[in-house]
Amino acid sequence: MSDIRSLMTQQFENEIARTRQVLDVVTDAVLDYQASPTMRSVRWNVSHLVDVPSWAEIILKADEFDVAPPDGPPHETPEMATVADAMKALDKNVAEARTALADFDVQSLDADWSLKAGGQTLMTTSRYETFQMFEISHVAHHRGHLLVYLRMNGVETPLLYGG
C-alpha cells in the first residue's frame, strides 16, 4: 500500500471484517443484556458499532460534527430492533463509508476537524487522526465491550487476531 487512501481503506475494511465476525455471533436473545444499570446494553453496543461507519463521510468531507447542534435535533444512535436489522444497517453504512473513502480530498487529512456538542468544541484534531480515532480505535473499543458482554452470556466468541 503506497498511498494513504489505500492504507485508510484497508484499515477500515479490517475493522469492519472483525466487527462482522463479532456481530455474526450475537443473537436477538442477548440484545437486552446489561452488565449493570450504569452500563450500556448489548443492543446499544451493537447499534453503536453499526452507526459509527456512517460518521466516515462527516469526518472525511466536513470540518466538524455537532452531536447536539443548537439549532437542530441531537445525533442519536439508531436503535436496532434485531441483529438482522443491524446487519442491514451496517451494510448500508459501510457502503456509504467506502464511497467517502474512495473520493475524499486526501490533501485535507492534515486539516483541523472538530467534534462539538451544543456549539461547544469538545475536541479538535486533524481529519486523519479523527478518522483513526473513531473509525478504527473507537470501533475496536466498543467491539471489546460487546465481546465481554457476549462471553458473560456464554456466547462463544471468535478469535479476531489469530490464535
Automatic annotation (TrEMBL):
<feature type="domain" description="DinB-like">
    <location>
        <begin position="11"/>
        <end position="145"/>
    </location>
</feature>
<dbReference type="Pfam" id="PF12867">
    <property type="entry name" value="DinB_2"/>
</dbReference>
<dbReference type="InterPro" id="IPR024775">
    <property type="entry name" value="DinB-like"/>
</dbReference>
<protein>
    <submittedName>
        <fullName>DinB superfamily protein</fullName>
    </submittedName>
</protein>
<dbReference type="InterPro" id="IPR034660">
    <property type="entry name" value="DinB/YfiT-like"/>
</dbReference>
